[in-house]
What we know:
CATH class: Mainly Alpha
Oligomer: single chain
Structural class: mainly alpha
Strand content: under 5%
Number of helices: 7
Amino acid sequence: MLSDSNTLKKDVLHVLVRESLGTAEIAERLNRERNGHMSEALEELKVAGFIDEDGGVNPATGRRARTGRYRIRDNYTRFFLRYVLPVSEEIRRGAYRFSSLAALPGWESLMGFQFENLVMNNLPTLLDSLGLGNRSFVSAAASRARRARRACRRPRGRFRR
Length: 161
């Protein structure tokens, strides 16, 4: 699945290691067009169980999000891409020395993603265990936080020196 002939799929996974993104954001990060090749790669990764698409609902309006956000669904894939692959040559040579998981850079944020995946991947069982299996929900998608964009503003009026 992840041979060199599938560069786009590998690139998509690498982009999704640190955050969930929409199709346009993925294409932008990869400097690629948002086209049929991108959609096909995302769909194949979804079918294979590597990624999932979360639609979500705007809590203020109750409307469904127009675009979904993709996230790595498989916890081992995220761990491998983030921590094992970058040092794979050192591991192969026997030169890598492991100290502890907590000492890995970004470990706590990775644990947040892993926990989110654990919940999302087991949501029906979790809801049943909490006695909420027969309830309707507006959305069970992961929360989204949009980053505020800073606009460059020109000063108004004239400056005196």
